[in-house]
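Colleagues,

Please find the record for the two-part complex below.
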Amino acid sequence: MIKVIFFAALREQLNCSELELNSENLSSVAKVKQALIEANPQWQPILKNVSLLSAVNHDMVGGESPVKSGDEVAFFPPVTGG
Amino acid sequence: MTTSIKTNDSQRVSIQKHDFNLGDEVALLEADNHEDGAVVTFSGRVRNKNLGLNVKGLYLEHYPGMTEKLLEKIVDDAKNRWQLGRITVIHRIGQLYLGEQIVFVGVTSKHRQDAFAAAEFIMDFLKVKAPFWKKELTEEGENWLDAKAVDENKAQQWN
């Protein structure tokens, strides 16, 4: 399984803070995103936003980064702390 | 309640709901520290206006685990660039109201230049790298803040 979590405005737009996906055939962050859209077509315009950032196991990564079973994949908007 | 605190001899990163006291933080940076002649601190507070809206408060969300990791990395990067003594970074989360403190960065060094530069560097990268998000509560409604290009440009200047 892959744990997927969402933060801030994205979490509110999707009305979802976290979920789990079967990791079969999900070899990259981009494929995780695609699987989320296939399972929830209404999420497409939100998840296709190019400014969204992603992290795997707390490291900021790009869409082509590999994922494997047991990983935590996070999607979130650009950060605004400080 | 402290959600995370990591400490060693010379650096401390804390993500917490509760407030901090500037005097106490300076005292910790200075206690038994006779090597460093310079102490630079920055604190950020909730202000009353943003983008023409009347701000009443902020809600601060973060990504537990990743936030601490990023802040430790920023502190390590600063220590690799300058000769620093002690470093403290505190960031509050949750509901904060007008005038409340949000963030603290304190740095000591032998001479002022290193402490000034490192404090600015840490704040610049905290703003664009650490996974915190602010939701603004205004008299006109609630909204998540957008990241600003000016902050990204400021951090890029260190490259």
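Strands of chain A lie at 2-6, 18-21, 53-56, 59-61, 72-76.

Comments are welcome before we finalize the supplementary table.
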